């Protein structure tokens, strides 16, 4: 093969790699299997195309605590190729529907923070932290609560 062809193939491969790597956290790695969707209430808005990166169920133990806290609690992180501005608008609109009520919303121009609860059960709620490429939700009984890890 001529050196010019090899150089052209290498350059084309690098360009393809650079273009496809916009947000590597939002793309599944080959051979890693299909990620499981996050386990959230059926009527909770989930941003289309977001990839669940991590999910924890249950409250973290308190230092020195001897009993287990059995209240429902979810902590989920999603990755997306979209901006925090788009995800902020999506969650503001989504939480205005159904059994959800927005308690407060702070837009920082790159995402923001939204606190919410259920109309039917005001002690069940949560907090959504939004940034470019990232959605972090903490929700459960006796929330809004906590800050992302």
Describe this protein's structure.
The protein has one domain. Helices cover 19% and strands 30% of the residues. It has helices at 3-20, 84-94; strands spanning 51-57, 73-79, 100-107, 112-118, 124-131, 134-141. 22% of the residues are buried.
Order of helices and strands: HEEHEEEE
Number of domains: 1
DSSP strand content: 25-35%
For the secondary structure, the number of strands is 6
Major beta sheet, specifics? Answer: 6 strands, antiparallel
Key phrases:
single chain; 149 residues; alpha+beta; six-stranded antiparallel sheet; elongated
Write the layout of secondary structure elements.
Elements: H1 3-20, E1 51-57, E2 73-79, H2 84-94, E3 100-107, E4 112-118, E5 124-131, E6 134-141
Antiparallel strand pairs: 1-2, 2-6, 3-4, 4-5, 5-6
Brief description of this entry?
With 149 residues, the protein is of the alpha+beta class. Helix content is 19%, strand content 30%.
């Amino acid at each position: 093969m001529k050196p010019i062809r090899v150089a052209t193939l290498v350059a084309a491969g690098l360009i393809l790699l650079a273009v496809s790597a916009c947000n590597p956290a939002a793309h599944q790695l080959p051979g890693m299997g299909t990620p499981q969707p996050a386990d959230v209430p059926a009527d909770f808005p989930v941003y289309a195309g977001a990839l669940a990166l991590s999910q924890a169920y249950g409250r973290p133990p308190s230092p020195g605590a001897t009993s287990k806290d059995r209240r429902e609690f979810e902590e989920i992180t999603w990755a997306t190729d979209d901006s925090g501005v788009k995800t902020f608008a999506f969650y503001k609109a989504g939480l205005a529907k159904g059994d959800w009520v927005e308690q407060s919303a702070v837009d920082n121009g790159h995402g923001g923070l939204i606190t919410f609860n259920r109309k039917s059960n005001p002690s069940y709620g949560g907090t959504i932290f939004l940034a470019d490429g990232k959605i972090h939700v903490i929700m459960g009984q006796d929330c809004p609560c906590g800050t992302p890890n």
